[in-house]
């Protein structure tokens, strides 16, 4: 067993995936479709978290990466009839190369400047796909009739679950290596990491490449699930904020947290839909997210951990340090 990974971790992951596999037998197909969207949002949130949650470089341009993957496979498969088995890997590689070309210079700056530059990339992508070669991108209408990989809610659920589980376990394992520790250290104090002799530029580039890879995979499979792509939906500011809020209220830099946040937000928005069908439900979900974040800044993951420790009767660290408190 690798360092930092025990049989208990393997058992917990197996129980989670096994429990999710039973859902098609327990819930109706409508609920299953909500789970499919939650699975894809979890993939996007984990992709954002691996870069921004670990290193502290807050990206507002993640739909830029997702869009490259989605548009590449949609154009190749729909316009040029390239088999999906080729168009999806090509989309992932294109996402990593194009993302690196645009984002690598931005990694030399940080803070609000990095966030603004990435936001500009997303807006640039939104405008370009509408005016450059609309015969390929579909312009403002996008592309409909993209080949789907599976039919039926059950098959698509298992496909999205398999993708999410593989990506989650891969990123979770990566976070427990020395590279993951170094990336977290960059988020706390980049100068100290540089002073220790580590090349922070290479580490940040590695984090970005992994993040772009996951975004490309998620974007490519997502468009083949929807069967269509439209720039207004993909580059919508609500889509960006949903990805970021899912990571933050779930628990940034934890992998498990973004997954929990994605499921929480997806079902919250879905259950609000009958009562608030318009965009006003985003105000409710924003309020809930704000209250939750104020109650526990480390997110749902920490709330679950604290609850589990209370059940086991394990005192909080503060109580150990000061029994009289």
Key attributes of the depicted protein:
325 residues; 17 helices; globular; mainly alpha; two-stranded antiparallel sheet; single chain
Q: How would you portray this structure in words?
A:
There is one protein chain. With 325 residues, the chain is mainly α. Helix content is 75%, strand content 1%. The protein has 17 helices and 2 strands. The protein has helices at residues 7-21, 23-26, 29-55, 62-79, 84-103, 112-131, 134-137, 153-175, 178-188, 190-195, 200-226, 231-234, 237-250, 256-272, 281-295, 299-311, 317-321, and strands spanning 143-144, 228-229. The two termini are 40 Å apart. Residues 319-325 have low confidence and may be disordered.
Q: State mean pLDDT (0 to 100 scale).
A: 85
Q: Determine the fraction of residues in helical runs and give it as a percent range.
A: over 70%
Main sheet: which strands, in order across? 1-2
Oligomeric composition of the shown chains? single chain
Q: Could you give the order of the helices and strands?
A: HHHHHHHEHHHHEHHHHHH
Q: What global shape is seen? A: globular
| Number of DSSP E strands | 2
Tally of helical segments: 17
**Structural class assignment:** mainly alpha
Q: Any idea what the radius of gyration is? A: 20 Å
Low-confidence stretches: 319-325
Strand content: under 5%
Q: Largest sheet, if any?
A: 2 strands, antiparallel
Termini separation (Å)? 40 Å
Pfam family, one: BPD_transp_2
Subcellular location: Cell membrane
Main location: membrane
Keywords: Cell membrane, Membrane, Transmembrane, Transmembrane helix
